[in-house]
Amino acid sequence: MTHSEFTGFGTLAVHVGQEPDGVTGAVIPSISLSTTFVQSAAGVHSGYEYSRAGNPTRQSFEEAVAALEKGEYGLAFSSGSATTATIAHLIPVGSHVILVNDVYGGTYRYFTKVATDNGIEHTFVDLVNPENIKPEFKENTKLVWIETPTNPTLRLVDIEAVARYTHEAGALLVVDNTFMSPYFQNPLTLGADIVVHSGTKYLNGHSDVVIGVAVLNNEQLYTKLKFLQNAIGAIPSPFDCFLANRGLKTLHIRMKQHAENALAVAKELEASDKVDEVIYPGLQSYKQHELAKRQSSGYSGMVSFRIRGDINNANKFLQSVKVFTLAESLGGVESLAELPSVMTHGAVSTEDRAKLGITDTLIRLSVGIEEADDLVRDIRQALSEAVPDQ
Ligand SMILES: *Cc1c(COP(=O)(O)O)cnc(C)c1O
Description:
Blueprint: H1 9-15, H2 56-68, E1 73-77, H3 80-88, E2 96-100, H4 105-114, E3 121-125, E4 141-147, H5 159-168, E5 172-176, H6 181-184, E6 194-198, E7 212-216, H7 219-232, H8 238-248, H9 251-271, E8 275-279, H10 289-295, E9 302-307, H11 311-320, E10 325-326, E11 336-338, H12 350-356, E12 362-366, H13 372-386
Parallel strand pairs: 2-3, 2-4, 4-5, 5-6, 10-11
Antiparallel strand pairs: 1-7, 6-7, 8-9, 9-12, 11-12
Helix pairs in contact: 1-2, 2-8, 9-13, 11-13
The chain binds pyridoxal-5'-phosphate.
Pyridoxal-5'-phosphate (PLP) is lined by residues 79-81, 104, 106, 147, 151, 176, 178-179, 198, 200-201, 210, 212.
């Protein structure tokens, strides 16, 4: 696709990085499995030397995600967590990092159990009020790491405000955009310096690839991170890049359906007397609905709710669903349900779980792209199994 005036999301998703093969004319570029590339003279090559440093299939994926995130440069990694760890190498020993308090569990684990041993200190801050970040900056604060919405209580962080405070303090802002996907939210346009994704979730979208990606605009920062991508070597395989890129081509179609189905499910839950609270940014009743409308163009497929009763009712619900599958992870075409207090957030201390509102009755749904009516009926029947009529 060489016509730069055709920049609609779906057009970019289908075409960027997907030029027909110059030799065979194949419309879908071949998966480039070769680890090494021919040189016409020592040090003279076509841009590829060795596959860890650069690979055509990986580059296609990186270019596509960068275009969708409205960024200049993309870099892919072997997982979302490898992306996080590699970015953490951008800052020197002795640095301080500020993270949103209910950051993704793997990011929490990395900064509390790994980065500390490498001389990086951290502070967790509740950022529902962005002003809370101001007193937390230190002389050596180099990085701020946020997610919005957070997981699993779906609280929002005002990206623009946090970007402003972060830059005033001379630090870099990283936004983990996994939950929204570039279809609904583009943090770079709101002031973020680096956007990261666990491509394992919505980007690939089919629950069959573990992959990560970072997108950024600053050329110097890109050069540094690309150096680290090669030096650390946590790169995805060409086959995984191919699959993730193939998933990406339908991202816009899937996200529309995820969001439509999630709203239908959220409304069903809200109408039920077997549910104490529903958390979905697309609901009028959602506390930060105005912020949601301002910084994103939709509300994605994640819905959390508190079932009436105790953990037994929650377990009964999870055992009663028939279309939803009881499993961790999110962002795939199939609907999933899980109990964060036991599953995804089981490693968080009881005390911290209580502070974050991760109670034993909080159920997290990743609403898939099945028929909305089936999902709604499944929720209804599982609720009536799990909670007796009043
Ligand atoms: C899953 C996830 C990650 C980690 O990604 P992996 O690909 O599992 O390593 C990071 N952030 C968020 C928000 C996630 O959901």
